[in-house]
Every structure is written in structure tokens, then in C-alpha cells.
Design a protein that fits this description.
InterPro entries: DUF6598. Pfam families: DUF6598 (PF20241). This is DUF6598 domain-containing protein. With 351 residues, the chain is mainly beta. The protein is built from 3 helices and 20 strands. The strands form 6 sheets. Strands 4, 5, 6, 7 and 8 form a 5-stranded antiparallel beta sheet that branches. Strands 16-11-20-19 form a 4-stranded antiparallel beta sheet, with no helix packed on it. It has a 4-stranded antiparallel beta sheet with strand order 14-13-17-18.
Length: 351
């Protein structure tokens, strides 16, 4: 695991320089010689082979899957998806002093360095396992025939999860398994772009004051460097966002994003330029890419709708909601050519 402090960033920068030298060297070497050198470097795997594999970037064996199999996790099926969905306790009344867990909001995931250069056609999965059941919650899932084009290090992966609020009592684990289909129109021998296990420690954060900022974990693996940005949230509840078009054009052009009042960072729920035009259902409900936001009861949730007016002009409409332990809130707005109902359904995140 690597964090975002200065020492870690220095290590990452050194790794990037070494990777660039290695990549230039390999392009001029015979492929057979490169394979022979890698086989010699591998040696015996000192880790459990069920959860690990050889990483040519680190030149060592690394964990790629959750491997802490003890207690309730002893018979855990690593491929089983979590059956727990959102809004699980919306209708339940909790006493005022009831324990509120911590959570996290994943802001973005970026491939900030690629041995293959750019652009990249990326597919694969990003799975998160939280304290609730350690089962799979997909953040990103694309097949080989549905790649996302990454044009530069500034492009974020289009995240489609989590499907519910994450419980962050001890650790949260991310399993990264991203592959590249082709580079500059040419197939590559090793499609593994980024693969590994990222561990985020929630226990060590408990004794310290809340860090009201975006934090980062970095994964140096296979043929890339990946940055995952997130916000750690104390005393949290889950907010499920629904956008309903009451009147206006059939398709929504624009952006919908969320932020909490104490952290100046937007969490993109949908961008029609990136995700495609949003089409409402028969009841007018817009199908967003993401809809779950964790919010501290000590903050406010701010939803912002940027409705396209034509060209580069937008009508920007922010709306604030006060977090609750259950029930829901609705607010009606007029934004550009749209009359919109914003609804946030609140729920506790509980075992």
C-alpha cells in the first residue's frame, strides 16, 4: 500500500523513471531474451499462489486478491458479489445516539503513467471489499468488447459504483485488474495494465482529527501506475440520489455532481459528454452512472446540476440537503430548459 505523502511520491517518481528506462530497453531487445530474463527473475513464489502472481514492473510476486482468510472470511467466495444493496434501512427508525460508522467516497481512478504510452483501450474490473461482508462490490467492470478510451494521464475511469454505501470500520480493500486491448492500433503481448491489491487502513485514522481533504492511494504494478483518490468520512449515512425530469427535452445534456460542504471536491455522478446523453424512463427517472454518496451528519450534501444551454454555456443549479438517518428529501428546481425533481433517500450503513 502506498499513500500520498512526499516520501511515497518520491518513490513513485523514481519508479516512473526506472520504468521508462526499462520500456526503452525492452523495445530494442529481442522479445525472446526479455522473456528469458523475466523467467530467471521470477524464481519461487513465496506467497499463496491463489491470491498472487508475478509482477514484471516490481520484479517480484505481489498479492492481487484479498487473502486474509480467517474468522467469518474463512469460506469466502472471492467472486461472490455482495447481496446488500442501497437504502437497506430507509424505513427503520434509529435512536439519536445510535452508532454511525465511517465510510469513504471514491472520487476518481486514473492511469497516471503507462509503459505503453497513450491512448489506451482499457477494460477489466475494480472491486472494493468493505467491512460489512468483504464480498465483491464493483466500481468498474468492462469487457474486452466494451473498452474505455484513455487518451492521457488526466482521464478518469468511468466508475459505476459502489452500489451502496461502504462501511469503513477497519480496512477497505481494492482489487485492481485492468487490461489493455491494443495500443496505437497494435496488440500487446502482456495485456495486464494494472493489477494488484490496495489496502486502505481505517483503524489508524480513528485516533486523529478528521482529514477534510482528498486522499490518494497509488498502485505501481504491471505496466502502469494508478492513482485512486478518495475522501474518508466519519459519522456517515448513505445518500441515494435520484433525478427525475418533470418537464423539458427528452434527453438530459449536462453534468450532475455531488460534494459535501467541508471537502471542496466534486464527485461526478454523470457527465453526458463522457457517459452519453441521459434518457429518462417512462416515469422521468434519469439513469445515472453513479447514485450513491456517503455524507457525514455534521455536513451538508450539495447536488449540482449543470444543464447545457447550447455551445459552452450551462445553467448551474446547486441544491443543498441536510443528512438524515432515514426517510428521504425532495427538492424541485428549474435548471435551463428542464424542470427537475431531486430526491435523496437516506439510510444508515449497518451490519
Amino acid at each position: 500500500m502506498a499513500g500520498g505523502d512526499s516520501s511515497s511520491m518520491a518513490v513513485v517518481a523514481a519508479d516512473r523513471e526506472a520504468d521508462e528506462r526499462l520500456w526503452k530497453k525492452q523495445k530494442h531487445e529481442e522479445p525472446q531474451q526479455v522473456e528469458q530474463d523475466e523467467e530467471q527473475d521470477k524464481g519461487m513464489n513465496p506467497l499463496d499462489p491463489r491470491f498472487s502472481e508475478y509482477d514484471p514492473k516490481k520484479r517480484e510476486y505481489i498479492y492481487t486478491r484479498y487473502s486474509y482468510r480467517r474468522g467469518r472470511d474463512i469460506n469466502l467466495d472471492l467472486d461472490e458479489e455482495s447481496p446488500v444493496g442501497p437504502m437497506g434501512y430507509t424505513d427503520k427508525v434509529f435512536p439519536e445516539g445510535f452508532f454511525l460508522p465511517n465510510t469513504m467516497n471514491v472520487v476518481s481512478v486514473k492511469i497516471v503513467s503507462s509503459d505503453y504510452g497513450y491512448p489506451l483501450h482499457v477494460y477489466g474490473t475494480i472491486i472494493v471489499r468493505d467491512s460489512l461482508d468483504r464480498k465483491c462490490i464493483y466500481m468498474f467492470r468492462r469487457g474486452k468488447d466494451n473498452c474505455q478510451l484513455i487518451s492521457s494521464k488526466d482521464d478518469s475511469l468511468i466508475l459505476t459504483g459502489p452500489k451502496r454505501g461502504l462501511m469503513f470500520c477497519d480496512w477497505i480493500f481494492f482489487e485492481i485488474d485492468l487490461k489493455v486491448k491494443d495500443v496505437h492500433g497494435m496488440k500487446v503481448k502482456d495485456e495486464r495494465l494494472s493489477k494488484g491489491l490496495m489496502e486502505v487502513d481505517g483503524v489508524m485514522r480513528l485516533p486523529y482529527p478528521t482529514e477534510r481533504k482528498v486522499q490518494m492511494e497509488t498502485l505501481v504494478s504491471m505496466h502502469s501506475i494508478l492513482d485512486l483518490s478518495f475522501i474518508f468520512i466519519r459519522n456517515a449515512v448513505e445518500g441515494t440520489v435520484e433525478v427525475r425530469i418533470l418537464d423539458g427535452p427528452a434527453g438530459f445534456h449536462g453534468k450532475i455532481y455531488a460534494r459535501t460542504t467541508n471537502v471542496p471536491c466534486d464527485i461526478m455522478l454523470h457527465d453526458s459528454k463522457v457517459n452519453g446523453m441521459l434518457t429518462a424512463s417512462d416515469k422521468g427517472v434519469v439513469q445515472m452512472v453513479r447514485s450513491i454518496v456517503g455524507v457525514s451528519v455534521d455536513e451538508m450534501l450539495r447536488l449540482t446540476v449543470d444543464a447545457a444551454l447550447g455551445g459552452d454555456e450551462f445553467s448551474v443549479c446547486p441544491v443543498e440537503f441536510t443528512p438524515r438517518r432515514n426517510s428521504y428529501d425532495e427538492k424541485e428546481i428549474t435548471c435551463g430548459n428542464y424542470k427537475i425533481l431531486l430526491k435523496v433517500t437516506w439510510s444508515m450503513i449497518c451490519f
